[in-house]
Design a protein that fits this description.
single chain; six-stranded mixed β-sheet; eight-stranded parallel β-barrel; TIM Barrel; 23% strand; Pyruvate Kinase, Chain: A, domain 1; alpha/beta; elongated
Length: 473
């Protein structure tokens, strides 16, 4: 099943969509990658859903990516004697380690790591930023704050600390258990929450190895300060706009989104835009015009993928949400300005043979009407580099490894196919011609470009570019 678009769609599975029938409908509606959210559901639930996805993959004969999204640390206040209290702007409010129910003057904050990292004037945001506290005094087990924005505070509300790097691992004990389980299942991508710096990605890589690709969720201002280092070390990034919008002024989020997209494209790493893309479709069969424009903007910016969260996991119209997003992307990619904007934002190639080959593809496509770019790849590297150039012709990522084909389901413009390993150039050319014709990417007489690494079987050695005309073999 060939997609008639380049940008990809990720859908989160949940109560509204985790049956085999619904997953099949979502795939047919345009979903390329399915997200298993480990903040919800049991291991048994995720194992069952994983099995459904793989069954759909077998039925449709197309690689499908699976993303395991780890929960990460959850920082919360304790409970209140009355269940909730109203804080007045300008009052003092104490956060401490005392194990007693809270009142209008204090509440427990059972996270010593927060107190250790505080600085004078630091902000603490409670309940998704609805309540804002400014730190006036603190020590290792309590903080006196001034209420800058008041409101109702209730049991176990979340706390965000945007101004400091917290001395904690983004991997909780729960995350480590979930990670081991997800890797044993055979997921293709692992998303890490609460990333603050490059060392966090290194920690996850030490546990994952080569068993899955790593996606860093950028949801904290501290991560943006270390953006380039994080992008270089991970395999993909997600613009997690929900927490970004809590921890920094709302007007900065669109600017940061573009900054992240540019950084990811420079490195040739897929970038995903997430959170509230079609939020109204949780309860409405059609999106708002603003939401349609939001999705379109992400595509015009050159994002590899956009993601549906509650829309498909818990909403009333999961199939309609997937269909709407698919239609928006197709319409944007038909716009002549889309191609102009993509070409205008093309990053400069790196000083490697692989980038020289991929950059040449872009220039060739401006001279010759290529039907497709055919990349032979074992690790996915060649296809990633080709996609970085955003070629006008679709990229066929041909690999002997199913896990590589599934990872490529996330990458802009890549249509992944499985094929046996090649032993010589003639075999490689004949195979590329056959697959291009069979998959419907070209017709007899059209030209395709083929990239590969020589000698065969060596990962990350893209060093060959060949043009060939499609013909009967």
């Amino acid at each position: 099943m060939r997609r008639r678009r380049d940008a990809k769609i990720i859908a989160t599975l949940g109560p509204s969509s985790n049956s085999q029938e619904k997953i099949g409908e979502l795939f047919d509606a345009g979903i390329d990658v399915f997200r298993l959210n480990f903040s919800h559901g049991t291991h048994e639930d995720h194992a069952r859903t994983h099995g459904y996805i793989r069954e759909i993959e077998n039925q449709r004969s197309r690689p499908i990516g699976i993303l395991a999204d780890l929960q990460g640390p959850k920082l919360r206040v304790g409970t209140f004697a009355n269940g909730s209290e109203e804080l007045e702007t300008g009052q003092r409010f104490v956060l401490d380690m005392t194990d007693e129910p809270g009142d209008a003057n204090r509440v427990t904050l059972p996270h010593p790591e927060i107190f250790k990292a505080l600085e004078p004037g630091a902000q603490l945001l409670v309940n998704d930023g609805k309540i804002r506290l400014k730190v006036m005094e603190f020590d290792d087990n309590h903080a006196v704050t001034e209420v800058m924005v008041g409101g109702i505070i209730s049991n176990n509300k979340g706390v965000n600390v945007p101004d400091v790097i917290l001395p904690i691992s983004p991997l909780t004990e729960k995350d480590r258990i979930d990670l081991a389980f997800a890797l044993d299942l055979g997921v293709d991508w692992v998303a890490m929450s609460f990333v603050q710096r490059a060392e966090d990605v290194v920690e996850l890589r030490s546990l994952v190895g080569n068993r899955a690709a790593i996606m860093a969720k950028l949801e904290k201002p501290t991560a943006i300060k270390h953006l380039n280092d994080i992008v270089q070390l991970c395999d993909s990034v997600m613009v997690a706009r929900g927490d970004l919008g809590v921890e920094m002024p709302q007007e900065k989020v669109p600017v940061i989104q573009r900054q992240i997209v540019r950084a990811a494209r420079r490195e040739g790493k897929p970038v995903v835009i997430a959170t509230q893309m079609l939020e109204s479709m949780i309860s409405s069969p059609v999106p708002t015009r603003a939401e349609s424009s939001d999705v379109a903007t992400a595509i015009y910016d050159g994002s590899d993928a956009v993601m549906l969260s509650a829309e498909t996991a818990a909403g009333d119209f999961p199939i309609e949400a997937a269909t709407a997003m698919n239609r928006i992307i197709i319409e944007v990619e038909r716009d002549a300005y889309y191609r102009k904007s993509i070409d205008a934002s093309l990053p400069a190639p790196g000083d490697t043979v692989a980038d020289a080959i991929s950059s040449s593809l872009h220039h060739i496509s401006n001279v010759l009407p290529l039907a497709a770019t055919f990349t032979y790849t074992e690790s996915g590297f060649s296809s990633f580099r080709a996609a970085r150039e955003r070629p006008e012709a679709p990229v066929i990522g041909c690999t002997p490894y199913q896990e590589t084909a599934r990872r490529l389901a996330l990458v802009w413009g890549v249509h992944a196919v499985l094929s046996s390993e090649m032993s010589n150039v003639d075999e490689m050319v004949a195979n590329a011609i056959n697959i291009t014709l069979q998959e419907g990417f070209g017709e007899i007489g059209e030209i395709i470009a083929i990239t590969a690494g020589m000698p065969f079987g060596r990962t990350g050695t893209t060093n060959m570019l060949r043009l060939t005309r499609l013909k009967e073999l």
